[in-house]
Amino acid sequence: MYAGTLPLPGVASPDAEAALVRQLVDGDERAWRGLHRAHAADVYRVARRFVDGDAEAEEVVQEVFVAAFRYIDRFRGGSRLRTWLYRITVNRALKRRRWRTRRREVGPEDAERTAGHAITPEALAADRQALAVLQACLDRLEPRKRAVLVLHELEGLDTREIAEILQCPRSTVLTRLSRARQDLLRLAQRRGLRADDGGDA
Amino acid sequence: MRDEPDHAVQRLLAPLTRQAPHLTSDREAALWAAVEPKLRPAPRWPAWLALATLGAAAAAITLLATRPAPTQPLDVPLAARPLPSGAWVETADAVEVTAATANQTHLRLTTGSLASRVPHLAPGQRYLVETPTALVEVRGTVFTVAVDAAGATTVTVDEGRVEVTPTGRAPRDARAGTRLTVEAPTAAGAARAEARGDVAEALDIQAHLLFSAPAGLARDNGLLRLGAVYDARLPQAAPAFWDRVAAGDGPHAEVASFRHADALRRLGQLDAARAAAAAFRARFPQSPRAVETTRW
After folding, report:
1. ipTM of this model?
2. Same domain? B179 vs B73
3. Measuring CA to CA, how many Å separate B52 from each of B47, B61, B63, B64?
4. What is the largest CA-CA distance in chain A?
């Protein structure tokens, strides 16, 4: 019986998750509270990789759990709950980006400030401005490639789970990942960011 | 193509990996407090009650639709809010809603910014954002209006087309992918536009100021000087300027009428130049410049 807290995200056994889903479908408030407690931070972290600010990421978290509540009866158990929540998160966050990011771009002054001197990863960590440029490089990626790169490189998800989240074949994920890496390195190089002389662990 | 780590990319992204966004337990609890009230099953109403409610709602909508739109100042921030017209606005700043019906949306923004997503509007539907210096009218688009501390209005159009009418001046089109800034119609506004390199806006403000000035020699001479600036710096806008000067009865109408035709000629618009020259000769047949224009 569910007791108000969930095991660590992603490690629930299939049987425990199936029982939890039944409780969620029944509208068990404690089950929903537990789901939120277990996954809100993950959802927030993923959302924050896609949207512009903490406040907007928190809005996405709210939207995701409200949508999950509304559609939990359609959850078939074909994937893990966390994967399903990530799918909603990425869809919601990308939808917001489609509307908002057209207005935001890195100005030429940003590129000029960073051009001409290479920045190692160590220096990047201490250099908020360069971090912003790195973030801008990510923002310049085509949204579907960016989604794959963020989920794989920053969130550490494997390409099979990413394929489930994005609902596309794994081969597509691998293609997008490869191209996203190339695009990111090219964009970073253009802005004077260099990764190959760093020794980051 | 395999799922192997790319070390160059990993090293590049290492700072972002280390600085993973973190949701504190306090924020998680606060978010739950916001989400929890929304996790309520929709009530299941008896069919007769649902039908009666629907009927009452339809009657109320009909009544509201036939009433004039109330002017209702709402000095509260709107946050990603849908409007009766189907449009969405998003802002963190105070916006006065002077009309919000299915057919007309009229928002007044004094300072700050306001993003709008407007679905395609049917004939008769209007969506307007009024600022201290401009009226922005939309035809189904995604755009942002921002007003800075000096009162300048900047319209950024992401999709579609927006018509921007600077207060007291001629409307302009802002198309997708463009940004248009309307300064306050003052000498300071013109200077700001000039400083940002927006020659069109700087000259338009100066023209507005001169055309609005009391009639007299100072005004007429000012228009003549400004026309020369248009010729030199913004030749594509010079014909319209000279045409407007020529439309008046000032002492420089003859010069302006000739310059209108000449500006068109210099732009290579020969047919329009010849038509303007013919109008010039008809109006000022004794002008010493008349003969010259017959050779164009």
Report:
1. 0.76
2. yes
3. 9, 14, 17, 18
4. 61
Interface of B with A in 158-187 (CB under 8 A): 158-159
Residue with tokens 């000259």: B203
Where does A14-100 sit in CATH, by number?
A: 1.10.1740.10
- The C-alpha atoms of residue A183 and residue B164 are separated, in whole angstroms, by 38
Cβ atoms of A165 and A150 closer than 8 Å: no
Rounded average pLDDT over B190-218: 90
- Tell me what pLDDT residue A175 has: 93
Mean pLDDT confidence for B253-271: 92
> Which pairing describes strands B153-159 and B126-130: parallel, antiparallel, or unpaired?
unpaired
Test B11 with A49 for CB contact under 8 angstroms: no
What range does the domain containing B175 cover?
Answer: 69-183
Q: Which two tokens stand for residue A84?
A: 């399903």
**How many C-beta neighbours within 10 Å does residue A195 have?**
25
Spatial distance between the Cα atoms of B147 and A171, rounded to a whole number of angstroms? 48
Minimum distance, in Å, between the CA of residue A160 and any CA atom of chain B: 10
Domain termination residue (choose one: B138, B165, B183):
B183
Contact assessment for residue A37 and residue A65, using Cβ atoms and an 8 Å cutoff? no
In B, minimum Cα distance to A25 occurs at B41
Eight-class DSSP state of B252: T
Beta pairing partners, B105: B100, B127
